[in-house]
Amino acid sequence: YGEKTKEFLDKYVVLLGKAETDEDKHNISLDWSKDHELLILGTKITPDNFRTAINKSNAQLRDGCVNFINNLKLHNIPFTIVSSGIGDIIELFLHKEGVSYYNIVTNFIDFENDTVRGFKKPFVSTYNKDQIVLPVKNKPNIILIGDAIEDSKMSDSIENKEIVLKIGFCSKTIKVEKYKQYYDIVLVDDQTMDVVQEIVSPLLFNKSKKEGNL
């Protein structure tokens, strides 16, 4: 399995690098997911298998992320995750980190008696997030947070929006100028939620004040 996934990675990274449009990149990502789907089809997988993998990984949330999400929950502000990853793993990881307040739009595995039947539709890739219908309604003001240029388009499908503040996390200084074309605020090599929290905190304070909770 490991050798085959490495083979897919080498193959599709090259193809994605040559693709010119987001549509082409999405179609390549879709082919990649189909190859991976065929690879795991019929495999016996349980949540314990995922938990073991999560416990062995070095993945972690940004500093202050849990506190940020808890503040949103306290003030009844919807929090939606859009990811091209595997939802079954993401949810177990969030549970491990103590996060329970979220909506999520991502790719979930279709199981039958712990046997993989494939992936549930629709398929979410890095390159079609602007086309995915999000569970966000009647919210004119939106804060969008992403770490890829393509993430800046995630709010495109939301209807009746008025203000969208886009905050981008950029890990490579060389890409900063490019990110500035798509995001209102670009944070370079920042592994915390400090700046986002500083922006949101006054808004939550004013919301509580208007509602008479202060």
Automatic annotation (TrEMBL):
List UniProt keywords, sorted A-Z. Hydrolase, Magnesium, Metal-binding, Nucleotide metabolism, Nucleotide-binding
> Some GO term, biological process aspect, for this entry: which one?
nucleotide metabolic process
Per its record, what are the GO molecular function terms? 5'-nucleotidase activity; magnesium ion binding; nucleotide binding
Q: Which reaction does it catalyse?
A: a ribonucleoside 5'-phosphate + H2O = a ribonucleoside + phosphate
Which InterPro entries does this chain map to?
HAD-like_sf, HAD_sf, Pyrimidine_nucleotidase_eu
Q: What class of enzyme is it?
A: hydrolase
Quick check: keyword Nucleotide-binding in the entry? yes
Alphabetical GO CC annotations of the entry are: cytoplasm
Q: What Enzyme Commission number(s) apply to this enzyme?
A: 3.1.3.5
> What family is this protein classified in?
Belongs to the pyrimidine 5'-nucleotidase family.
Tell me the protein's name.
Answer: 5'-nucleotidase
Species of origin: Clastoptera arizonana
